[in-house]
Amino acid sequence: MDITLPAANGDWVSYRLVGKPVEPIKGARFSRIAYAAAHVVADPIAMTDPWSRPVVDWDRTMAFRHHLWRLGFRVAEAMDTSQRGMGFDWASAKELIRRSIAEAKTVPGADLASGAGTDHLAPAAAKTLDDVIGAYEEQFAFIEGEGGKAIMMASRALAAVAKGPDDYARVYDRMLSQASGKVILHWLGDMFDPALKGYWGSNDFDTELDTVVAIIERHAGKVEGIKISLLDAEKEVRLRDRLPDGVVMFTGDDFNYPELIAGDGRKHSHALLGIFDAIAPVANAALAKLAEGDKAGYDALMAPTVPLSRKIFEAPTEYYKAGIVFMAWLNGHQDHFTMVGGMQSARGICHYADVFRLCDQAGLLADPDLAIARMKTLLAVAGV
Protein backbone atom coordinates (compact mmCIF):
# COMPACT_ATOMS: atom_id res chain seq x y z
CA MET A 1 0.00 0.00 0.00
CA ASP A 2 1.28 3.44 -0.97
CA ILE A 3 0.48 7.00 0.00
CA THR A 4 1.98 10.30 -1.09
CA LEU A 5 3.08 12.43 1.85
CA PRO A 6 4.54 15.92 2.19
CA ALA A 7 8.10 16.49 3.38
CA ALA A 8 9.46 19.43 5.34
CA ASN A 9 11.43 20.68 2.31
CA GLY A 10 8.21 21.10 0.33
CA ASP A 11 8.63 17.94 -1.73
CA TRP A 12 6.09 15.16 -2.12
CA VAL A 13 7.31 11.67 -1.25
CA SER A 14 5.68 8.38 -2.16
CA TYR A 15 5.65 6.16 0.93
CA ARG A 16 4.99 2.42 0.90
CA LEU A 17 3.79 0.94 4.18
CA VAL A 18 6.27 -1.56 5.55
CA GLY A 19 5.04 -2.34 9.05
CA LYS A 20 3.19 -5.42 10.20
CA PRO A 21 0.73 -4.61 12.99
CA VAL A 22 2.01 -6.01 16.27
CA GLU A 23 -0.49 -8.25 18.02
CA PRO A 24 -0.77 -7.61 21.76
CA ILE A 25 -0.69 -10.56 24.12
CA LYS A 26 -3.98 -11.30 25.87
CA GLY A 27 -3.64 -11.78 29.60
CA ALA A 28 0.00 -10.67 29.54
CA ARG A 29 1.85 -10.50 32.84
CA PHE A 30 4.29 -7.66 33.39
CA SER A 31 7.32 -7.51 35.68
CA ARG A 32 7.02 -3.73 35.80
CA ILE A 33 4.21 -1.50 37.01
CA ALA A 34 2.99 0.21 33.84
CA TYR A 35 0.69 3.23 33.91
CA ALA A 36 -0.51 4.75 30.65
CA ALA A 37 -1.41 8.43 30.95
CA ALA A 38 -4.61 8.53 28.93
CA HIS A 39 -6.05 11.22 26.64
CA VAL A 40 -9.65 12.37 26.49
CA VAL A 41 -11.89 12.16 23.43
CA ALA A 42 -13.62 15.44 22.62
CA ASP A 43 -17.21 15.71 21.42
CA PRO A 44 -16.74 17.77 18.22
CA ILE A 45 -20.44 18.47 17.73
CA ALA A 46 -21.25 19.65 21.24
CA MET A 47 -18.00 21.57 21.66
CA THR A 48 -19.08 24.84 20.06
CA ASP A 49 -16.46 26.88 21.95
CA PRO A 50 -13.42 24.56 22.00
CA TRP A 51 -10.95 27.10 23.38
CA SER A 52 -12.76 27.68 26.64
CA ARG A 53 -15.59 25.15 27.04
CA PRO A 54 -14.40 21.56 26.68
CA VAL A 55 -17.00 18.90 26.00
CA VAL A 56 -16.01 15.25 26.30
CA ASP A 57 -17.35 12.21 24.49
CA TRP A 58 -17.63 10.13 27.64
CA ASP A 59 -18.47 6.86 25.91
CA ARG A 60 -15.38 6.93 23.69
CA THR A 61 -13.21 8.25 26.52
CA MET A 62 -14.22 5.39 28.80
CA ALA A 63 -13.89 2.88 25.94
CA PHE A 64 -10.27 3.90 25.51
CA ARG A 65 -9.60 3.22 29.19
CA HIS A 66 -11.08 -0.25 28.73
CA HIS A 67 -8.67 -0.70 25.80
CA LEU A 68 -5.73 0.10 28.10
CA TRP A 69 -6.98 -2.12 30.91
CA ARG A 70 -7.47 -5.04 28.51
CA LEU A 71 -3.82 -4.69 27.52
CA GLY A 72 -2.69 -4.90 31.14
CA PHE A 73 -1.99 -1.23 31.82
CA ARG A 74 -2.98 0.86 34.77
CA VAL A 75 -4.45 4.24 33.88
CA ALA A 76 -2.97 7.54 35.01
CA GLU A 77 -6.08 9.69 34.86
CA ALA A 78 -6.58 13.43 34.41
CA MET A 79 -2.88 14.04 33.86
CA ASP A 80 -0.92 16.17 31.42
CA THR A 81 -1.90 13.83 28.56
CA SER A 82 -5.57 14.65 29.12
CA GLN A 83 -4.66 18.34 28.56
CA ARG A 84 -4.80 19.49 32.16
CA GLY A 85 -3.82 23.15 31.97
CA MET A 86 -4.21 23.12 28.17
CA GLY A 87 -7.95 23.36 27.62
CA PHE A 88 -9.15 20.74 30.12
CA ASP A 89 -10.21 22.38 33.36
CA TRP A 90 -10.69 21.05 36.90
CA ALA A 91 -14.48 20.87 36.58
CA SER A 92 -14.08 18.55 33.59
CA ALA A 93 -11.28 16.64 35.31
CA LYS A 94 -13.52 15.96 38.31
CA GLU A 95 -16.13 14.35 36.08
CA LEU A 96 -13.43 12.36 34.27
CA ILE A 97 -11.99 11.11 37.56
CA ARG A 98 -15.41 10.23 38.97
CA ARG A 99 -16.40 8.29 35.88
CA SER A 100 -13.04 6.51 35.56
CA ILE A 101 -12.97 5.37 39.19
CA ALA A 102 -16.52 4.04 38.84
CA GLU A 103 -15.64 2.36 35.54
CA ALA A 104 -12.53 0.71 36.98
CA LYS A 105 -14.68 -0.97 39.63
CA THR A 106 -16.50 -2.85 36.86
CA VAL A 107 -13.29 -4.36 35.45
CA PRO A 108 -11.52 -7.17 37.36
CA GLY A 109 -7.94 -6.14 38.06
CA ALA A 110 -8.32 -2.62 36.68
CA ASP A 111 -6.30 0.03 38.46
CA LEU A 112 -5.80 3.76 38.14
CA ALA A 113 -4.47 6.84 39.87
CA SER A 114 -5.65 10.40 39.28
CA GLY A 115 -3.93 13.75 39.01
CA ALA A 116 -4.33 16.17 41.92
CA GLY A 117 -3.07 19.64 41.17
CA THR A 118 -3.96 23.28 41.68
CA ASP A 119 -5.16 24.15 38.19
CA HIS A 120 -8.43 25.69 39.41
CA LEU A 121 -6.24 28.33 41.12
CA ALA A 122 -4.81 30.76 38.57
CA PRO A 123 -1.09 31.33 39.26
CA ALA A 124 -1.68 35.09 39.41
CA ALA A 125 -4.38 34.57 42.03
CA ALA A 126 -2.08 32.63 44.35
CA LYS A 127 -0.72 35.05 46.94
CA THR A 128 0.50 32.71 49.67
CA LEU A 129 1.56 29.11 50.20
CA ASP A 130 -1.70 28.59 52.06
CA ASP A 131 -3.56 29.41 48.84
CA VAL A 132 -1.63 26.65 47.10
CA ILE A 133 -2.15 24.20 49.94
CA GLY A 134 -5.88 24.93 49.94
CA ALA A 135 -6.07 24.23 46.20
CA TYR A 136 -4.20 20.94 46.56
CA GLU A 137 -6.41 19.97 49.51
CA GLU A 138 -9.56 20.47 47.43
CA GLN A 139 -8.35 18.18 44.67
CA PHE A 140 -6.93 15.55 47.03
CA ALA A 141 -10.20 15.52 48.97
CA PHE A 142 -12.23 14.94 45.82
CA ILE A 143 -10.04 12.09 44.55
CA GLU A 144 -9.76 10.37 47.90
CA GLY A 145 -13.47 10.91 48.55
CA GLU A 146 -14.22 8.97 45.36
CA GLY A 147 -12.01 6.14 46.58
CA GLY A 148 -9.11 7.03 44.28
CA LYS A 149 -5.34 7.31 44.56
CA ALA A 150 -3.75 10.74 44.06
CA ILE A 151 -0.84 11.67 41.83
CA MET A 152 0.47 14.97 43.21
CA MET A 153 1.05 16.99 40.06
CA ALA A 154 3.45 19.90 39.81
CA SER A 155 1.73 23.24 40.45
CA ARG A 156 2.05 26.38 38.35
CA ALA A 157 0.68 28.35 41.30
CA LEU A 158 3.36 26.97 43.61
CA ALA A 159 6.06 27.78 41.06
CA ALA A 160 4.73 31.35 40.95
CA VAL A 161 4.56 31.98 44.71
CA ALA A 162 7.41 29.89 46.17
CA LYS A 163 10.62 31.72 47.10
CA GLY A 164 12.91 28.73 47.49
CA PRO A 165 13.24 25.02 48.37
CA ASP A 166 11.83 25.50 51.88
CA ASP A 167 8.51 26.67 50.45
CA TYR A 168 8.21 23.52 48.34
CA ALA A 169 9.08 21.41 51.37
CA ARG A 170 6.35 23.09 53.41
CA VAL A 171 3.66 22.41 50.82
CA TYR A 172 4.71 18.82 50.10
CA ASP A 173 5.18 18.02 53.80
CA ARG A 174 1.69 19.26 54.50
CA MET A 175 0.01 17.32 51.70
CA LEU A 176 1.86 14.06 52.25
CA SER A 177 1.38 14.11 56.01
CA GLN A 178 -2.40 14.36 55.66
CA ALA A 179 -2.98 12.16 52.59
CA SER A 180 -5.23 9.22 53.41
CA GLY A 181 -3.29 6.77 51.25
CA LYS A 182 -0.03 6.46 49.36
CA VAL A 183 0.69 9.19 46.83
CA ILE A 184 2.63 9.25 43.56
CA LEU A 185 4.69 12.43 43.13
CA HIS A 186 5.25 13.99 39.70
CA TRP A 187 8.33 15.99 38.76
CA LEU A 188 7.41 17.60 35.43
CA GLY A 189 10.10 19.51 33.57
CA ASP A 190 9.66 22.90 31.98
CA MET A 191 9.97 21.36 28.50
CA PHE A 192 6.46 20.00 29.19
CA ASP A 193 5.24 23.19 30.87
CA PRO A 194 7.35 26.39 30.69
CA ALA A 195 5.48 27.76 33.74
CA LEU A 196 7.26 25.14 35.87
CA LYS A 197 10.76 26.49 35.27
CA GLY A 198 12.66 26.63 38.55
CA TYR A 199 10.42 24.06 40.23
CA TRP A 200 11.66 22.87 43.63
CA GLY A 201 13.04 26.38 44.17
CA SER A 202 16.17 26.13 42.04
CA ASN A 203 17.53 25.84 38.52
CA ASP A 204 20.39 23.62 39.70
CA PHE A 205 19.66 19.92 39.38
CA ASP A 206 21.78 18.88 42.37
CA THR A 207 19.86 21.29 44.60
CA GLU A 208 16.52 20.14 43.18
CA LEU A 209 17.53 16.52 43.72
CA ASP A 210 18.43 17.13 47.36
CA THR A 211 15.10 18.87 47.96
CA VAL A 212 13.05 16.06 46.41
CA VAL A 213 14.94 13.25 48.11
CA ALA A 214 14.64 14.93 51.51
CA ILE A 215 10.86 15.27 51.09
CA ILE A 216 10.53 11.62 50.07
CA GLU A 217 12.72 10.39 52.92
CA ARG A 218 10.58 12.25 55.45
CA HIS A 219 7.41 10.65 54.05
CA ALA A 220 8.64 7.33 52.65
CA GLY A 221 5.64 5.54 54.11
CA LYS A 222 3.24 7.82 52.22
CA VAL A 223 5.03 7.92 48.84
CA GLU A 224 4.36 5.02 46.48
CA GLY A 225 6.78 6.44 43.96
CA ILE A 226 7.81 9.42 41.92
CA LYS A 227 7.40 10.02 38.19
CA ILE A 228 10.16 12.12 36.69
CA SER A 229 9.64 13.74 33.28
CA LEU A 230 12.85 15.57 32.40
CA LEU A 231 13.71 13.68 29.17
CA ASP A 232 17.16 13.00 30.65
CA ALA A 233 18.02 9.39 31.48
CA GLU A 234 21.07 10.29 33.57
CA LYS A 235 19.06 12.55 35.86
CA GLU A 236 16.40 9.88 36.32
CA VAL A 237 19.02 7.29 37.28
CA ARG A 238 20.58 9.66 39.79
CA LEU A 239 17.21 10.11 41.50
CA ARG A 240 16.42 6.41 41.23
CA ASP A 241 19.66 5.51 42.99
CA ARG A 242 18.75 7.72 45.96
CA LEU A 243 15.17 6.60 46.56
CA PRO A 244 14.46 4.91 49.89
CA ASP A 245 13.58 1.21 49.87
CA GLY A 246 9.93 0.71 49.00
CA VAL A 247 9.62 3.90 46.96
CA VAL A 248 9.23 3.24 43.24
CA MET A 249 10.73 5.15 40.34
CA PHE A 250 8.23 5.72 37.54
CA THR A 251 9.89 6.81 34.34
CA GLY A 252 8.17 9.67 32.57
CA ASP A 253 10.99 9.92 30.02
CA ASP A 254 9.30 9.60 26.63
CA PHE A 255 12.73 9.70 24.94
CA ASN A 256 14.60 6.97 26.86
CA TYR A 257 11.93 4.74 28.39
CA PRO A 258 13.05 1.32 27.01
CA GLU A 259 16.48 1.40 28.64
CA LEU A 260 15.15 2.87 31.89
CA ILE A 261 12.43 0.24 32.20
CA ALA A 262 14.88 -2.56 31.37
CA GLY A 263 17.28 -1.25 34.02
CA ASP A 264 21.03 -1.25 34.43
CA GLY A 265 21.45 -4.59 36.16
CA ARG A 266 21.14 -2.99 39.59
CA LYS A 267 17.89 -1.08 39.48
CA HIS A 268 15.11 -0.40 37.00
CA SER A 269 12.29 2.06 36.53
CA HIS A 270 8.61 1.28 36.36
CA ALA A 271 6.54 3.40 33.98
CA LEU A 272 4.01 6.21 33.96
CA LEU A 273 4.10 7.39 30.38
CA GLY A 274 2.04 9.42 27.95
CA ILE A 275 3.53 7.52 25.03
CA PHE A 276 1.99 4.28 26.36
CA ASP A 277 -1.39 5.73 25.36
CA ALA A 278 -0.24 5.60 21.75
CA ILE A 279 1.98 2.50 21.70
CA ALA A 280 -0.03 0.31 24.07
CA PRO A 281 -0.25 -2.78 21.81
CA VAL A 282 3.51 -2.88 21.22
CA ALA A 283 4.36 -1.96 24.82
CA ASN A 284 2.10 -4.79 25.98
CA ALA A 285 3.96 -7.35 23.86
CA ALA A 286 7.36 -5.93 24.81
CA LEU A 287 6.68 -5.88 28.55
CA ALA A 288 5.45 -9.47 28.33
CA LYS A 289 8.77 -10.43 26.70
CA LEU A 290 10.70 -8.64 29.44
CA ALA A 291 8.73 -10.49 32.12
CA GLU A 292 9.70 -13.77 30.43
CA GLY A 293 13.39 -12.82 30.54
CA ASP A 294 13.49 -12.25 26.77
CA LYS A 295 15.46 -8.99 26.74
CA ALA A 296 16.25 -9.30 23.02
CA GLY A 297 12.56 -9.66 22.19
CA TYR A 298 11.73 -6.68 24.41
CA ASP A 299 14.37 -4.53 22.69
CA ALA A 300 13.27 -5.57 19.20
CA LEU A 301 9.70 -4.46 19.90
CA MET A 302 10.49 -1.29 21.82
CA ALA A 303 13.30 0.09 19.63
CA PRO A 304 11.08 1.17 16.67
CA THR A 305 8.76 3.05 19.03
CA VAL A 306 11.53 5.41 20.19
CA PRO A 307 11.85 7.46 16.95
CA LEU A 308 8.06 7.72 16.95
CA SER A 309 7.96 8.92 20.55
CA ARG A 310 10.78 11.40 20.00
CA LYS A 311 8.88 12.84 17.04
CA ILE A 312 5.61 13.11 18.98
CA PHE A 313 7.40 14.72 21.96
CA GLU A 314 9.70 17.00 19.95
CA ALA A 315 9.90 20.67 20.93
CA PRO A 316 7.63 22.41 21.72
CA THR A 317 7.11 19.30 23.85
CA GLU A 318 3.90 20.48 25.52
CA TYR A 319 2.09 19.93 22.20
CA TYR A 320 2.76 16.19 22.22
CA LYS A 321 -0.92 15.56 23.02
CA ALA A 322 -1.76 16.26 19.37
CA GLY A 323 0.31 13.30 18.21
CA ILE A 324 -1.24 11.03 20.83
CA VAL A 325 -4.79 11.85 19.72
CA PHE A 326 -3.80 11.69 16.04
CA MET A 327 -2.70 8.08 16.54
CA ALA A 328 -5.91 7.24 18.39
CA TRP A 329 -7.84 8.55 15.38
CA LEU A 330 -5.67 6.67 12.87
CA ASN A 331 -6.30 3.46 14.80
CA GLY A 332 -10.07 3.82 15.03
CA HIS A 333 -10.42 4.63 18.72
CA GLN A 334 -12.33 7.78 17.75
CA ASP A 335 -14.12 8.96 14.63
CA HIS A 336 -12.57 12.41 14.35
CA PHE A 337 -9.35 14.35 14.91
CA THR A 338 -10.74 17.17 17.04
CA MET A 339 -9.23 17.96 20.42
CA VAL A 340 -10.22 19.89 23.50
CA GLY A 341 -8.99 23.43 23.02
CA GLY A 342 -8.67 22.90 19.27
CA MET A 343 -5.20 21.55 20.07
CA GLN A 344 -5.00 19.50 16.87
CA SER A 345 -3.81 22.77 15.28
CA ALA A 346 -0.68 22.77 17.48
CA ARG A 347 1.29 20.67 14.96
CA GLY A 348 1.71 21.06 11.22
CA ILE A 349 0.85 18.62 8.46
CA CYS A 350 4.48 17.57 7.92
CA HIS A 351 4.71 16.60 11.58
CA TYR A 352 1.65 14.40 11.21
CA ALA A 353 3.08 12.87 8.03
CA ASP A 354 6.25 11.96 9.95
CA VAL A 355 4.22 10.46 12.79
CA PHE A 356 2.24 8.40 10.25
CA ARG A 357 5.43 6.94 8.75
CA LEU A 358 6.99 6.18 12.13
CA CYS A 359 3.76 4.70 13.43
CA ASP A 360 3.74 2.27 10.50
CA GLN A 361 7.41 1.36 11.00
CA ALA A 362 6.73 0.56 14.68
CA GLY A 363 3.91 -1.84 13.80
CA LEU A 364 1.29 0.48 15.26
CA LEU A 365 -1.20 0.87 12.42
CA ALA A 366 -3.80 -1.65 13.50
CA ASP A 367 -5.81 -1.30 10.25
CA PRO A 368 -3.55 0.09 7.49
CA ASP A 369 -6.45 0.68 5.08
CA LEU A 370 -8.30 2.79 7.64
CA ALA A 371 -5.13 4.67 8.55
CA ILE A 372 -4.38 5.54 4.92
CA ALA A 373 -7.95 6.70 4.32
CA ARG A 374 -7.81 8.95 7.38
CA MET A 375 -4.37 10.31 6.54
CA LYS A 376 -5.60 11.22 3.06
CA THR A 377 -8.56 13.03 4.63
CA LEU A 378 -6.23 15.05 6.84
CA LEU A 379 -4.02 15.91 3.88
CA ALA A 380 -7.03 17.09 1.91
CA VAL A 381 -8.21 19.32 4.78
CA ALA A 382 -4.70 20.76 5.00
CA GLY A 383 -4.84 21.60 1.32
CA VAL A 384 -1.97 19.34 0.30
Helical percentage: 40-55%
- Shape, per Cα inertia axes: globular
Order of helices and strands: EEEHEHEHEHHEHEHEHEHHHHHH
Specify the number of helices. Answer: 14
Radius of gyration: 20 Å
Order of strands, widest sheet? 3-4-5-6-7-8-9-10
Strand pairing plus helix content: what structural class? alpha/beta
Strand content: 5-15%
Between the first and last Cα atoms, what is the distance in angstroms?
19 Å
User: Mean pLDDT score, rounded?
Assistant: 97
Structure commentary:
It is a single chain. With about 375 residues, the chain is α/β, with parallel strands linked by helices. The chain has 14 helices and ten strands. The strands form two sheets. Strands 3-4-5-6-7-8-9-10 form an eight-stranded parallel barrel, surrounded by five helices. Strand 5 (about 110-115), helix 3 and strand 6 (about 150) form a beta-alpha-beta unit. Helix 1 crosses helix 2, helix 5 packs parallel to helix 6 (about 205-220) and helix 11 runs antiparallel to helix 13 (about 350-360). The longest helix has 17 residues, at about 130-145. The mean pLDDT is about 95.
Give a short summary of the structure.
With 384 residues, this protein is of the alpha/beta class. The chain has 14 helices and 10 strands. An 8-stranded parallel barrel has the order 3-4-5-6-7-8-9-10, surrounded by 5 helices. The chain has a two-stranded antiparallel ribbon with strand order 1-2.
Can you lay out the helices and strands and say which pair or pack?
Blueprint (H helix, E strand, L loop, with lengths): L1 E5 L5 E5 L17 E4 L20 H13 L3 E4 L12 H15 L7 E5 L12 H17 L4 E3 L3 H6 L3 H14 L4 E6 L16 H14 L4 E7 L3 H8 L7 E4 L5 H6 L7 E4 L1 H17 L3 H8 L2 H8 L7 H11 L18 H13 L6 H14 L3
Parallel strand pairs: 3-4, 3-10, 4-5, 5-6, 6-7, 7-8, 8-9, 9-10
Antiparallel strand pairs: 1-2
Helix pairs in contact: 1-2, 3-5, 5-6, 9-10, 11-13, 13-14
